[in-house]
Each structure stands twice: as C-alpha cells, then as structure tokens.
Amino acid sequence: MKKYYKYNTDKLEYSKIGKIQIIKDNIIFILGFLLFLISILYLVIPSYSITSKEVVNKYIKEENEIVVINRNDNEFSQEKLIGEIDRLNFRFPHIVLAQSIIETGHFTSTIFMENHNLFGMREPRTRINTAIGTHRGHAYYDSWVESLFDYGFYSSRYLGKLKTEEEYFQYLSRHYAIDKTYVTKLKIIIKKEKLKEKF
Predict the structure, then answer these.
(1) 127 and 83 in a common domain
(2) Rounded alpha-carbon distances, angstroms, from residue 63 to 42, 89, 125, 198
(3) Using the 8-state DSSP alphabet, how is residue 43 labeled?
(4) How many angstroms separate the Cα of 122 from the Cα of each of 55, 118, 135, 177?
(5) Which one is predicted more confidently, 2 or 137?
C-alpha cells in the first residue's frame, strides 16, 4: 500500500498525509486550472453584439463576395431593383419584382416613400432582419436595399424549400397576403409587364 508524504516547511520535515487530503488537493488544483483556462478564453475570445447591419454584411454572400450596402447609392430606380434582385439570386425573381410592384403601388405608396419598404413587411420578432423599427404599422429601413435584404432573409427562412412557381404562389396565398386575389394580381402583372424577360 502506497504512503504519501508532504513536506512541512515550518517543521522542515515530511509528514504523512491521508487519501482524503490528496483528493482535496487534487480538486483544488483542478478547479484552479479550470479557472485559469476560463480567464484565458475570456481574454482571447472577444465579446460583441451583432447588429442587423453586421448580419447583412456577414451572411449575405454571392460567389464569395460579401454584399455591402452603398449608402451613397440608395436612390431608387426599378432598374437598380431588378439588378439587386438578380444579384441576390432569388429562385423566382419575377415573382419578387411583381410583389414589390403590387405592395408599393408601382413604387408610389407612402409606406414605400417614407419607410423604404418594398414588400409591405411588418417588423419581424423571431428572425434575422434589417428593419430599424416600425412606422405606420410597417417595418421601416434605412434604404430600399435593406428592405430587399430583409425580404431575402424572409425568403430563406420560409420559402427556401419551395421548388416550383405554383408552390411559391400557394405559400404567398396562404401566408403572405390578406387579399384573396393577391396571387391572381401577381400573375397578371408578371404577364402584362413581361417580368420574366427582365431576368
């Protein structure tokens, strides 16, 4: 049977110690080591909060290029919107464009003009978004570009598994709009304004 001794610096001699004391010493050593590791990790890993702008810059990528919002080029035009929709690679870009036309009344509505809101979106509570608040009962954004990014987040969360146009239209009919003729209006605009040809 092994016997353990500890050097006593006061008496300048070795004294016998029991197993319980060894266990206590080991526990104290392990706890001290763990506290040391935690303090090192705390110093090495920075703590930070992610804002909606950082989320956009971090998570929206296209061919390894991070999308950056150019705040000096936020002036709206339908051509710029088409370019952004195309660049963000929506599955059915013509439907997205048709939605923006309907929701903004051909880009003339108050919600669009004041809130920069292209899709009549409400401020979400449970998903990543780029809204900066609520005004007139709808989300408002720094720019129309951020409204489009927000729709992108919405689309990836709820529409990503839909494979056909018809599934997409059915989802919109059931979950997106109160208007029972919403999908019919989308189809009319897509055909009348030849939106498929724009992509």
Answers:
(1) yes
(2) 34, 11, 30, 22
(3) H
(4) 19, 11, 9, 12
(5) 137
Could you tell me if 134 and 67 are in contact, meaning their C-beta atoms sit under 8 angstroms apart? no
Considering the domain architecture, whether residues 113 and 175 belong to the same structural domain is answered as yes
Which domain, by its residues, includes 27?
4-44
Phi and psi at residue 62, in whole multiples of 5°? -145, 115
The full length of the chain comes to 199
Token pair of 160, please?
């990503």
Question: What pLDDT is recorded for position 27?
Answer: 76
Question: How many domains does the chain divide into?
Answer: 2
Residue entry with tokens 């720019």: 143
Q: What is the pLDDT of residues 129-166, one digit of tens each?
A: 999 999 999 999 999 999 999 999 999 999 989 999 99
Indicate if 56 and 39 belong to the same structural domain: no
Q: Are residues 93 and 159 in the same domain?
A: yes
